[in-house]
Design a protein that fits this description.
The protein is α/β, with parallel strands linked by helices. The protein has two domains: 4-110 and 168-205 and 376-406, Rossmann fold; 208-373, Glycogen Phosphorylase B (Rossmann fold), CATH 3.40.50.2000. The protein is built from 16 helices and 14 strands. A six-stranded parallel β-sheet has the order 2-1-3-4-7-8, with helices on both faces. Strands 11-10-9-12-13-14 form a six-stranded parallel β-sheet, with helices on both faces. Helix 3 (65-78) runs parallel beside helix 4, helix 9 packs across helix 14 and helix 12 (304-311) packs across helix 15 (356-373). The chain is globular.
């Protein structure tokens, strides 16, 4: 029987890791024979909002009537068997959970950030990891202006999450959750989400499109959003201590200008900022790298760039935070250092510069990890298992409802 899947996602203005993985899942599901119906919005829509429209935008972020109407029409015309929901903020809104639940469409929530427990989705504020809101008291987010340092936006997201979470709608409507690692699964369970509905699998990744290159051009690589929580300043401080090394920085973000200024003010001449690069342009820099740096200072969940590095046969030097250690094994496929410790990072980089035998061993094991863990077959098998689970739950609920009616 051909299953029809409704895929719902609110795309970001600038392509994010979440956008990349949802597109990869769409390709996998289509290739596996599923019929796909998409419901998407894009944050670029907010560029044309007028002053008065922002009031409507705020209300729709909490509960979007447009989403309700659109989904009602889609479900009536397409009759999907199951819905995959990823990001819903700000344009789709959590109203999608209510309407899908009412229309009896099982929801599989793809979890790639901490939004279900944290208004700013990162568990990071004020320059450090923060878990104040995990238990459900979102006043902390307003007090600390966690979302873009804005009181109004922090209040909007905190209020939205509080309303839908404490109403029980999220737990009631969502039939299953897919997380990229056990660490995020644990955070959701700690917040009260049902453990029996949790499934964990690595991000979808087209490893067959990558070929390992075990040689290198000598440089290290930092790639991704240039924001403080990604550890860009720890990387820069490490480069101060390692003038004989060379670091290429790919990406853009709110901390790009401060990072460039820091490098200039401290006379760091061995770091080159290349700006955002994607696809072949990114890979052209990646294949020449000695190793990828992932000096994250937040709970970073299997970033796509890490998967790309492993697929290219590049070892990763990463912070020793639990979510990253589920992928990077010290002295096997990469090296680990204490989060935020620039001298330790510099020491690990120096070791790879002077021990080519170790670097090559890590590189080969990185590729083996990718070949074992990041295959499309493994991902689609996992998705089928989750779909089968929610389908069984739907059948059980239907039987129970029938029995109640009969009584």
């Amino acid at each position: 029987m051909l299953l029809k899947v409704l895929v719902c996602h609110n795309y970001y203005k600038t392509t994010s890791g979440e956008d990349i993985v949802i597109r990869a899942d769409l390709e996998l599901l289509r290739a596996a024979g599923f019929e796909i119906v998409e419901y998407t919005r894009n944050n670029a829509e907010t560029d044309v909002l007028g002053v008065h429209q922002y009031l409507r935008f705020a209300a729709d972020t909490v509960y979007s009537g447009r989403t309700v109407r659109d989904i009602e029409q889609l479900v009536e015309s397409e009759c999907p068997d199951v819905a995959f929901v990823q990001n819903v903020f700000p344009l789709i809104s959590p109203s999608i959970y209510h309407v899908l639940d009412r229309l009896n469409v099982p929801i599989i929530q793809l979890v790639y950030n901490y939004r279900l427990v944290c208004p700013n989705a990162t568990l990071y504020t004020g320059g450090k990891v923060c878990e104040r809101c995990v238990t459900g008291n979102y006043f902390h987010a307003i007090r600390h202006r966690c979302f873009r340092n804005s009181l109004s936006l922090s209040a909007l997201y905190a209020g939205t999450l509080a309303f839908h979470r404490h109403s029980g709608a999220l737990k009631r409507a969502i039939s299953a959750y897919i997380t990229p690692d056990m660490f995020m699964r644990g955070k959701l369970i700690a917040a009260g989400y049902p453990a029996e509905r949790m499934f964990t699998m690595f991000n979808p990744f087209p490893i067959d499109q990558y070929r390992p290159v075990y040689t290198h051009a000598g440089h290290f690589l930092f790639a991704g959003r240039i924001v403080r929580e990604k550890g860009i300043f720890t990387a820069l401080r490490a480069m101060e201590l390692l003038p004989e090394a060379r670091l290429l920085v790919v990406g853009g973000g709110e901390a790009e200008e401060p990072a460039r200024n820091y490098a200039t003010e401290h006379g760091i001449r061995n770091v080159e900022f290349l700006g955002p690069r994607y696809g072949p342009d990114l890979l052209s820099v990646m294949v020449g790298a000695r190793a990828l740096l992932v000096p994250s200072e937040w709970f970073d969940n299997c970033p796509v760039i890490l998967q790309q590095a492993f697929a290219c046969g590049k070892p990763v030097i990463a912070s020793d935070i639990e979510c990253l250690t589920e992928v990077v094994t010290h002295r096997s496929n990469g090296l680990l250092f204490p989060m935020g410790d620039a001298p330790a990072l510099a020491a690990q980089m120096r070791e790879l510069m002077h021990d080519e035998e170790l670097r090559l061993s890590l590189a080969r094991n990185a590729r083996r990890t990718a070949e074992r863990e990041f295959t499309p077959e493994r991902r689609i098998r996992g998705l089928r298992e989750v779909i089968a689970y929610v389908s069984r739950q739907k059948e059980i609920m239907a039987v129970s409802a029938g029995e109640e009616v009969a009584q």
